[in-house]
Protein 1
Amino acid sequence: MSNSVASEAISVGSRFPEIPEDARYGLLIDGESTTAEGGATFRCVDPFENREWGHVAEASPVDVDRAVRAARRAYAGWRDTSQSQRSALLVKWGRLIAEHAEELSRLQVHENGKTIVEMRAASQGCARAAAYYAQLAQMHHGYTIDPALPNHQGWTLRSPIGVVGAITPWNNPLGLLVPKLFPAVAVGNTVVIKPSEVTPVSTLRLAELAVEAGIPKGVVNVVTGGGGTGRALAEHPWVDKLAFTGSTTTGRAIARAGAERFARVTLELGGKGAQIVFPDADLDRAVDSLVKGITAGTGQACNAGSRVLVHESIYEEVIGRVGTALAALTLGDPLEVGTELGPLASRPQFEKVTSYFDVAAAAQHRLVTGGRRGTGTAELEHGLFVEPTLYGDVDNHARLAQEEIFGPVGAAIRFSTDAEAVAIANDTKYGLTAGFWTSDLERAHRLAPWLEAGVVWINTWRMFSPLMPFGGTKESGIGSEGGLHALDQYTETKSVYLGLGA
């Protein structure tokens, strides 16, 4: 089976008239846009049109050093700025994000093909997050112990760490940057961001809005480029904290780089979430959740629920209904409000996902629906589309059940008992998300602690609140983001003792 992408361009019209095809985007260092050393650039690719656009600066290690030095220079002044001033600037930044939400949404659609409906909600969520972390920082404080010892008073202080290196992925560049960037800046750190080379422009624009909001130069910097740029940032001796979301393989490399100098590290890595359906589940709601778990973000999400575990008594009914629902989804231009599934984000990702169709065929997995690239229109066949796919009767040790495909591909697995369902769900190197559907309240309370995942959803899926932490266990990462203790990830605790005399 050939999975090659059509190479000849098709007439798609001007979908982004506000974005010149030959637009040039520089690095953002010390509040200014600047070219990379030697003028090196790379190009973005619109996955719907399968066409290159823009010219983005390719940062070298010298450029990364410039950005880190700018962040280091800005650190003392930003650290010593009052918390009320920092919070006020963050609120202003959030207002600008809300005002430019449509611009940010369209930029990300152009970069990675997420649907405009999803991106409009996500951009407004970014704006709300700025206000949330600004408020949270106002309440972030230490505590007093009196007496800490006889004739001694003691208290703790929360101090910023220093320069934070934030390295973000292409599947959700703004949404996964926000829980790193806003908490770090809110409590007095400075930041150097390295977005994925697939999605650099939306991040650059978000950072430009920080400058427009009045946040001092050097507090927020952006270096764009590929793996070499990220490596230079991770290994820079003046970066005090690394916050990364991406693959487990890259996460290991970043952890090693941080360990060399004892830099603090937060890693949010891969996932292979299991959605479990018990016989007493509300099947209408469960089927809708299963479909979303497989296809949300075109399946390009670490929190995807791509392993579908169904009790044997309802197995055929459930996978039949899920297959029918997947086949009915509307694929098309992500700028169209009616589109339910956009293209994959990049050419390499398209090749990776479609390669699993050959893996499934070789393993003789039962194809319920999909299993091929998008067809039916010239746009689907030219763009980076795959049909939403479900395979049935998959063994949990098969590649489709163990490897993070990062596309709209689900693997259905039978189980017979609660214990077997939990054992299958936990039988993976990942531990990011898991969930189940049941009307049995006792089962809900009993099973949730047994699932080896940082996030467990019961009778829902892929719901997030900034009030709740998000992170994983096992090879899904170290630490968490979000929640009431988010600022603890970007501060150090200092103990102070005061001797009061005899």
Protein 2
Amino acid sequence: MNKKIGNIFKGDKVIWMVLFFLCTISVVEVFSASSGLTYKSNNFIMPIVKHFGTIIMGVVVAVLTVNIPCRYFKLMTPFMLLFSFVTLLWVLMAGENINGAQRVIEIPGFTFQPSEIAKGTMILAEAQILSAMQGERGADRKAFGYILIIAVPLCTLIFLENLSTAVLLFAVVMMMMIVGRVPMVQLGKLMGVIVVGIMAVLTFVMAVGHDERREKPQLAKTDVVEAPAADKEDDEGFLGRLFHRADTWKARIDDFLDDRVVAPEDYDLDRDAQVAHANIAIVTSNGIGKGPGNSEERDFLAQAFSDFIFAIIIEEMGLGGAALVVFLYIVLLFRTARIANRCANNFPAFLAMGLALLLVLQASFNMLVAVGYVPVTGQPLPLISKGGTSTIINCAYIGAILSISRSAKRADDTKDGDAPGEDEAKAA
């Protein structure tokens, strides 16, 4: 029996355990945090049934991905790049509206987010470039240019609809270049350009965006400022949607930078509902938590099952539960680093580290938002937040890491003088 299970769940057992615990936490906490969805749908069980089905599908995808030899990931790169560019252009021009931004493509029966696929595609392409151009002193100087030729267009297309995802992806690209030993002079120049670009974007947002809740205080007495309807945004065209996103970004920056001391009785829960109720959830946990299923703030947080699920975890499971979640992501990162260190060739090592950095950095973004250390970004908590495309794609990333762990183990077993494993040699 154990042998049969081992034949299904191949690869590094520790990472499989991390995936199992994250998925278990996801099922429990999403079930608890989906009260708003059950109220809207008038169906108590259907939201969690759909999420559990997505989790199962994600695990199946992970199992299938584990069985893909590492060398085939290279062959997928040009096709994935073409697919990512086409779908990102598609969603930009004719995507479906979610939370005021066109981020998904709707196909009869399901929707998917091209940005989720584009993130993994960028990691795959960068790993291939870095591995192909490695020398004794690090990556060739030309590798820097090749990476930017792919990263800049991809990140720009994502940026036009989802700023936080573009920032996240480019941060991972930078980290991979550091791991891949790209010359520091080139990275330093790039950092200078990035700083100038950030200043330009902030200037644009603050000059063009409108925070109506602050410019028109009477709006604060209403429930929320409604986002434009999807058909209205379509009438505005691309520039209209861009200016609308500037309004959203400015409002989030204003909220984050507002350091005024406000008395509890004067705090406007309608205007800053998400941040306020996330803070209430954390504080009312009293450090020990209220127990699974006993959250009260889930009824007031619009994205309790997604963007702010970490606040619900703290409210129900206390600081111990929060520490467990953080620990699982840390284990994922360091275990992947150990796998990468065992790889006989550069490509699987860079690919594994890139995927792990992507998952852990996104998790860090989400958790920092929930506790109020960075502005609201809209990034879900990988493998825990409720999601469709994101959950399945993240499981595929875990499957790729596990596939690499299999070939790395074979290579590690032959370090005493034998040739590296077949998959490792062909992935070089």
Protein 3
Amino acid sequence: MISLPVGTRVWLAAGATDMRRGFDGLARQVQQVLGQDPFCGHLFVFRGRRGDLVKVLFWDGQGLCLFAKRLERGCFIWPQARDGAVTLTPAQLSMLLEGIDWRMPSRTWQPEMAG
């Protein structure tokens, strides 16, 4: 995962996005649907209809970057809302990109009681 500058917000576009869209189409969606500026330095994450592909749009100060990830098995956990956006922390984004349910992560171990 690329480290994010302090103060960077992560926005998930609720609902399914046409994954044929590239830089311009996704930037337009950020402006028109999410009401955000795609050149503000925040990350905007989009998921396809099948749920196994995400694209991340990011302005790095010099140009737009477009990252994509496709899971070979499973799907990315997405909010139930049909429109709008949800904000995530960078840690939640890392879990999402690993295919982990970022909404309610659970430990695989329990700390032992002192005593």
